[in-house]
Input
Amino acid sequence: MFAYAVRRLLTLIPMLLVMTFLIFLGLEFMPGDAVSFVAGPEAIANMDPQQLAELRQSLGLNDPFPLRYLRWLGGLLTGNFGYSLTSGVPIGDILAQRLPATLELSFFALVVSTLLGSLLGLLSSLRKGKLLDQGLTVVGMIGVSIPEFFFGLVALLVFAIQLQWLPIGGRIRPEYTSYWDHLPNLVLPVLVLGISMTAGVMRYARSSMLDTINKDYVKTARSKGLPEWRVNLVHGFRVAMAPIVVLVGFRLPILIGGTVVIEQIFQWPGIGSEFLAAVRGQNSPLVMMIALLSVTAVLLASFLVDLLTAALDPRVKFH
Amino acid sequence: MKRILVALLCIAFISTAVFAQVAKTSPVADVKVRQALAYAIDMKTIVNSLMSGKALVANSLTPNGAWKMPNMKTYTYNPQKARDLLKAANWDPNYTLDVVFYYGDQMTVDLMTAVQAYLADVGVKMTFRKLEGDLASQLWVPPTDPVNGPAAVKWDLAYAAVAALSMNEYYDRFIPGGTANSHTPTDPTLAKLIDATHVVDVAAQKKAFYALQAYEGENLFALPLYYQQVFVVQNTKLDRAGSAFGNEQFNYDWNITKWTMPADASGKKVLKTNGGPVSFFETPFLNPGLFMSTKVLFDHLVVADASLTPSKGQLASDYKVSADGKLITFTLRKGIKWHDGSDITPEDVKWTYEFTAKVPTLNSVYGSMLKALVGFQDFKDGKTDGIAGITIKGSTVSFQYTTADPNALLCFSQFPPLPKKYFADVDPMKFQQAAFWQKPVGSGPFMVKDVSMNNFATFVPFKQYWGGVAKLDEIQMYPSGESDPNFIKNASASQLDYGYTKSVDDVLAAEKLSNLKVTPVDIRYTRLFFVNKFPKP
Output
């Protein structure tokens, strides 16, 4: 397994290199101009061409494409991720500030959706065709259909504004003194994001479990006289988890950029909202870095899914 | 037969010449066409419908108030008159006006759609498109020949806004041959009228603006559409101590040291607002008062009243302007301090205005003020170590100008001195990137207590403030840019006691909340069409 893991990891390097070039190239062709954003369209009407040229030079926008790409790549390899065009803050610092917030939100949302989705999917499959199954199917479809922003706004209106049980948004307030103080801020975004993702997991878990419980080895286990819970959970659900792991694994990278809506609604200072601001502001160094981060996460998730699938399903072998 | 052929040839030659001449003329160069466009658009209905009445119909670039001439000519909606004028101007009904804009909001698209329909009603075709990329090169590049053109830009009308600090900002962009005048050919009358507004004496300046506006009313070198207002939204519990409401995007005498809120459960009088830093505090040399954080952190040499007229000293106890307006002398107050407890010195003042002269992103009024200083260019070119026009004598700092700048005092009410010692190794080209802007040390009534970038910033009264200690115990700001998408959400949840917005949707929502009071304020913010009167190549 170790040799397999190392081999897979090594194949990621050329893929990443290609991706860095494609990201850089993509941004080169992106419409927009950082100067127009930094100074503002009204302000540039009053700036003389020399001033604009100086500003462009100071932002490093005048150099040719290959030089800028190689400089960026060189920076990446030496741990220098560059600077935000708009703030001048090192991108490493921005990621260090923003990434923990997104990872925190994503992690808890993933835990909620995985546990809830798996459990409900399992129950639904075991009660196939019964009222519970039909009810959960309807709930699942509604869950898939309701847009996150709508769900989030309703949750805010009810729990933060009307009932005032939970904060309106933000992550850390001036009065907080410990990590635990901000947990109430985490509740709504995590639940909205988590519940939005639960429906998908539930449907996957149900289908997978239904498929598994008809397999010969499950029937064999049942014929051995094992208790029903053991047959379902140990022999059935364990194998049924494999596609769920794939789904959850591939959700890991999506969560880095996929929390944009939730972060906007709940004023969560994560990487998603920073990415959105960077794209709007033509802040290409930051856009490139976050895009690269997402790509890396996708590749690593794919790698992780392969390992986990093999670990969960005895039929899968490492090659 | 020969004579007939010669005559026909002559007619063909003359026709070609005439058509060539016509082709060299912009379709909107004829004043009758511009007047027709103004008559054709029912801005009153647009303002009342699209903007729910939260804007004012414009009849000049100059906003309503003391600076606008009485009885300014107004082009009230009159489609028949528009048709008549177009007919008189021989308008080609097959020509399609190319209208551009750079805003990404739905309101702009709705407005363009409405304008398109109004123009179609009088027989004018129009398309509109959003500009992307390098806006300066698409909007403001002047033609090589500022008299005859051809234009260096492709559009006929450009929808834009002028958010002016000074009155001159509205009209200086029409100066013949100006670096950003892509649209208006040299007009000696206009040039003379604009030039006359560059005087220091307020009464003379006002008179000059009135004359300019009279010409504007007839000539319509731009098409004013509407005046945007700013809406101050405040908690009904906030006591502003009777302070006047002014243009919240700039600095004025808002008396914040006297503001107060009821004490909270912990006994603290806390004001919650937006405008806190997202990832840095913006320097105050482009947008001097856009963000609450900048306004409470920095004092200025002088302070302006609510109409943005400099009225009294702030960091300067006294100031004098020479009779010709070319020399301004400030005497600094005794004992004024930076938030770190060190003295604010005349050297800090001199250094600030020299250092920022090399900063690329500056407010245009401020940049012009600096350029007018004696010795500015030599300093900029590296020939001198300082600007010769800025001199120190004891506690006084003098600014000597080559030509009188009518906005010099206004600039000193907006662009604050900074503590020199924190910028020792800072490249002016990377001014915003300085570590200082992560936790600035200012001179205003409140100082930074705590900053958690992206989360909050808190400010507490500066105990050594020359104007006395503020009554509020703390100001808490959540991070937001110029347009705060969380304005209403936070106001609804009592997380915003004070703020301002230009969003119509926010205003309508705020008006429905019982804990909020909304005050509309007229500001210098005009939305208009720039009209490209140069022929297209």
Q: What stands out?
A: The longest helix of chain B spans residues 2-23. The first strand of chain B starts at residue 55 and ends at 57. The two ends of chain B are 40 Å apart (CA to CA).
